[in-house]
Write a structure and sequence with these properties.
Two copies of one chain form a homodimer. Chain A has 434 residues and is of the alpha/beta class. Chain A contains 16 helices and 14 strands. In chain A, 35% of the residues lie in helices and 15% in strands. Chains A and B meet through helix 5, helix 6, strand 8, helix 7 and helix 13 of A and helix 5, helix 6, strand 8, helix 7 and helix 13 of B. Strand 8 (193-197) of chain A pairs parallel with strand 14 (417-419) of chain B.
Chain lengths: 434, 434
Amino acid sequence: MPSTLDATSATTSDAPAQASPARALVCRGCGKEYPLAAQHACYECFGPLEVAYDQAALARVTRAQIEAGPHSIWRYAALLPAGQDPASRVTLDPGLTPLVSAPRLAEELGLRGPLWVKDDSANPTHSFKDRVVSVALTAARGLGFSRFACASTGNLANSVAAHAARAGVPSIVFIPGDLEPGKVVTTAVYGGDLVAIEGSYDDVNRLCSELVETDEFEDTAFVNVNVRPYYAEGSKTLGYEVAEQLGWRLPEQVVIPMASGELLTKVDKAFSELVEIGLVEAPANGWRVFGAQSAGCNPIAVALHNGVSEITPVKPVGIAKSLNIGDPAAGLYALEAVRRSGGWMDYASDDEIRDAIQLLARTTGVFAETAGGVTVAVLKKLVESGKLDPDAETVVFNTGEGLKTIDAVAEQVGPTYRIKPSLRGARDAGLLGG
Amino acid sequence: MPSTLDATSATTSDAPAQASPARALVCRGCGKEYPLAAQHACYECFGPLEVAYDQAALARVTRAQIEAGPHSIWRYAALLPAGQDPASRVTLDPGLTPLVSAPRLAEELGLRGPLWVKDDSANPTHSFKDRVVSVALTAARGLGFSRFACASTGNLANSVAAHAARAGVPSIVFIPGDLEPGKVVTTAVYGGDLVAIEGSYDDVNRLCSELVETDEFEDTAFVNVNVRPYYAEGSKTLGYEVAEQLGWRLPEQVVIPMASGELLTKVDKAFSELVEIGLVEAPANGWRVFGAQSAGCNPIAVALHNGVSEITPVKPVGIAKSLNIGDPAAGLYALEAVRRSGGWMDYASDDEIRDAIQLLARTTGVFAETAGGVTVAVLKKLVESGKLDPDAETVVFNTGEGLKTIDAVAEQVGPTYRIKPSLRGARDAGLLGG
């Protein structure tokens, strides 16, 4: 069933579909090119494939064209590998999430330049995964897939199940059998198939890689396996949005959480594209990319600190579960982007993550999941260590919603007063003077 | 400290502030008018006060002016009592939440006309309360208040605490002492004062009404007490948005959850205003307003069913806690709007609410809190009883986020398969044919 990409196959509108600017899949290792199909690894060198674009097509895109588009990632459709025809989209219309000015956070951290929080908890299922899932499933339907799947423990599962429900397409989501009930509910409620596997997340991933090769799953798109190159491109929209929301400028510094490392590389790619096609000018000294991990899962940051170009996988621990990928697929590319840009990486302990969630909430009104705590905690460390220029403009990314990881701070915060239900009770507690 | 409304008092921009179209507070009971101050009840008849507008000012508002505004409730600032000057706003910029087309939900319910879900879980703290809090706190700052407060058990507390954190203004939120830890965390994390009261929600409310009269709380705006008239107007934006998102048309039927009943009356008011000032035409047969309650708290619907014009307070029970107001302040006005429009009201049991949450999620990808389940369950009943025209265009309102009330459906949904981590396990479960 999987065929080459035909964005018009699901078209129900009479309007002619714009052409996709994507022209090929290209191996990040050896550079070999492949047609736009459901393939994620190079047959020659087993390197990961990435979408390559017709640069002339990208260069025709204008700011006015983007600004006239919808209030979602699809305003950037002309820079994406799928979704040019609105009727082809499998989507909850994520994106254009708030870029929140954070002067009080800046002040507490000792930053004198402008600081912004890009708050992706505002997406429909409250994480940045809605971006990548929308692009992956739109590409998948164009490629002829008729069932959507993923292996996940949280945000990705929510997003795939919700997208499938909106589109009326069957889904099958694979999760570890010991997942917390709350996380099971937020995927199961959408009514797709939900397979609990007696094993770890690594076991779940391994089984999905086997299932994708079977006849019974031939019609099934696993968003982060067989259509991964399209999936990964969805993260570019975070970079585009930051540039547009700053008035078509790039920030001088970005601080980005790393799981596979792909989000970081794609934001960097988005900035490069915007400069190449003339939609923004690069800052005088370029932009610098900073990566954030937790102490419980820090293989990319450790490689940077050790000055090596090889990543030693770890067995992840700690509360920042949505970032816990011990063998990060795009880690080397993230290292490369950070080194090239003159940035840095660091990692934060669970206690630092908890403190940073509260710091962010208290100073900006943004309640982040643990991944957002990681990023703010690392921002703090980067300021303290002098790696980050306190006078430059900085954007820090919150990729998820605090409601999904409430337990992380449940011991830290609570009522500041406990009183009896009377004015006397209020007075005794000091709320009414003496 | 509270003075008459001066929308420019917090202005930090050089741009001249637009004038507010609000001209007075007017008693809904006897019609007596008062200046725009921090007052919520008539000194003559103790009736509730409502904002009255300069109709000539409203009539100057154009579609183009609104469409050129920000992607938030503030595009309607010229129709609101506060926030005309962007610098005066105390806000997380809520609004313009998705109007989701729901053809599969319509089909399951037997609706042949277009069905839409207005999804207010997309607001910054994930409920419609962000709308009313933004308007209330903006008015409050204009009136000179320097601390923000509320009594709440959930959504309102989250929103007030987050707004105060964003604005850097002190807040003090009052909650019942036995609140679930999860709900405490989602307010406490923003770092304001949080007062747990040894008593019921009614006790909390009563104490707040007493505190608002004390010297120590003279500088404190309780959003749903002393600045309530401004607070209530924020709900109009839900009506404006539906009209604009339908292409400047009104739907023929709306189904709205009722707690105090105010949301329903304000959506109806918004529709009336838009017709009066010429921004939309009324549908040929007008619009019909339907109200939804839970069986555990149904005083307004029961009054309608009994054909009376007096509401008998109840002691609320049941899972739809965000709607559990046993003595609804705007209940009579909601009754009046529903009767005048030719609509109806009904109520749903906890089991029906649970089923409706799943139905909505499965057919639209929208995961609602229990209040959204109430509304969809009542929509279903209204179709079955023939009260709702299945051929007319209908909008159903989801006012909150499923992540906040996960326990409601935790027993109902779960994995559809449990397997061992191997292809054999998948085969044994029937995922791989025979």
